[in-house]
Description:
The structure holds 2 protein chains of 2 kinds.
Chain A (H helix, E strand, L loop, with lengths): L5 E10 L2 E11 L4 E5 L6 H9 L6 E6 L2 E2 L10 E4 L11 H11 L4 H14 L15 H13 L5 E5 L7 H18 L2 E6 L2 H7 L2 E6 L2 E6 L1 H6 L4 H6 L4 E13 L2 E8 L4 E7 L8 E6 L5 E3 L10 E13 L3 E8 L6 E7 L15 E7 L3 E4 L5
Parallel strand pairs in A: 3-8, 3-9, 6-7, 7-8
Antiparallel strand pairs in A: 1-2, 1-4, 4-5, 9-10, 11-12, 11-14, 12-13, 14-20, 15-19, 16-17, 16-19, 17-18
Chain B lengths: L2 H8 L3 H24 L14 H8 L2 H34 L5 H8 L1 H4 L2 H14 L6 H26 L3 H8 L4 H30 L2 H6 L7 H10 L4 H30 L2
Amino acid sequence: MKGVEVNVERVSRSYGDFKALDDVSVKINKGEFFSLLGPSGCGKTTLLRIIAGFDYPDTGSVAFDNKDILPLPPDKRQSNTVFQTYALFPHLTVYENIAFPLRLRRVDKQTIESKVKEYVRLVQLEDHIYKKPSMLSGGQKQRVAIARALINEPRVLLLDEPLSALDAKLRQNLLVELDQIHDKVGITFIYVTHDQSEALSVSDRIAVMNKGKVLQIGTPYEIYEAPSTRFVAQFIGESNSFPCTVLSCEPYEEEYLIRVDVPALKGEVSVTDYEPQAIGASLDFTVRPEKVRISTNPPRTTAKELNTFKGIVDEPVYSGFQSKFYVKLEQEPSTQVKVFKQHTVFLEDGPDIEWKDTVYVSWTATDGYLVKDTDR
Amino acid sequence: MNYHKYSNKTGFSFSYVMLALVVVFLFIPLFVVVFFSFNSAKGMQWEHASLVWYKTLIFDSPSLWAAFKNSLIIALTSSITATALGTLAAIGIKWYRFHGRSYITTVSYLPMVLPEVIIGISMLIFFSAVKVRLGMFTIYAAHTTFNLPFVFMMVGARLDEFDYSTVEAARDLGANERQTLTKVIIPSIVPAVLSGFLMCITMSLEDFVITFFVSGPGSGTLPLYVYSMIRYGVSPVINALSFVMILGTMVIAIIFRKFLKTVAASS
């Protein structure tokens, strides 16, 4: 592996009274595509800048392969950065921009030429090498920045929201390309973003951050399906989330079946969890909208694992491949349950569920989960 | 109500009137000067077309050319000094955080807002207090002083819109502080530095008031010389000189515009 292991241990950083990073520890494996995900101001960029050497922690340590890097200036670290604003040198051509790090090191002309050609090919900019940055589109500029950051052959590439200034379609394409580049060069990528779908689609692992703290580190799958706190559940994807109180808890196959009282639903809900919960504990009950089924007829089974609520469609939102329904519950009209329904069959006669229809929303106990509401 | 419709219909709106007035007030005097520079007579009566005043200007005005030479020397030297100092000052103020930064910034704009007479008198007092003989050097020093804030301001404005992350990028890619300055910062502020330099040249060439106070015997610049000529009556040589200077500035302005455009296009 060409990449390096990045070990951030107990790093804190304050700006006056504002705690940008509060005792953050992250261990990033060699060659991993690792994302730091969180809303703006959560400290993800500060952490990246500390790793790059543009900022320094008040306490804590940062090491590459167990070697402390904090005393080193940015130009002596084996990391390079791709900036949100591209940070290309406006007076230099694409070629000169990419060759810049090599020329600083006084590499001979032939080597520069062949290496620049190699990296230009990697980011697919062969047709633009003699253009100035002002003549390039946003996507092309970011490709130049990526090539320029990679040509020094760093062991870690730091990406600071590199796609946030691009439009949605281009962002998707470049994201896939970034993933392919990562596979080709095989070094560690640390990717800062506030866009959960970006992070979910390319990362090996994600650290979700909020208010200077790391809330959860895990694979995209773990983060989405088993969020550990209320903030993670609500920040990643969409969810129906309600405060609840534990009524009972009994073993259920390899897990526990827990009955909770949900005031917002004016009813009880069954939910499974890997861990037993204390009776009377205040938690958050959450279920993803795409896991909720919607039908005009009541579900046939009345097993206790199935949670069913009756309501009226308050707002159907048709968006081609799926429809979103906001269902107002019969017993508690102030609560809306979000339901996403994929259109897997041809809707020849128009939608089968319409505005003001009386519907049943249901989900099984295994599709819901309980999260700690520590962020409140 | 509907201004666009109104102005389109009449074709003769307030802005057209203003444009015409500006053209009349700005350019008619110039045309008069140019016109009479080709007059063979000395007075304001037209006799017949002649280049006699141009002949006098070119072949028979040694002291005028001496003054012009003084002007050029002072313009070039003071502009180079002011541009170098002003650029470095602007970079230093933006780059480093130190106590009293904002005070320095404010104070450095003073020569720009103070009346020229006050600057002239204070410099005269200063030079005589430190017993510097008035002459080319004092004019050079004075011009450098009043030119400096313009460069400082123009380069500072360019640095304000300068993307600081390119500096971080340069450091990140392996450049040390000096390389960052010479390979990234200075090249991208070149347009502002050049415009500042040209501004200095024009300001220095045309300055009268301050130069008047700090000049000594034999160190008169062109504006001072023209002023002394006028005191003995308006000579048509001045008309000829004016036309030559109008042409000269136009050529410089056009070349500079083209040059700046290519620099701007490449950055």
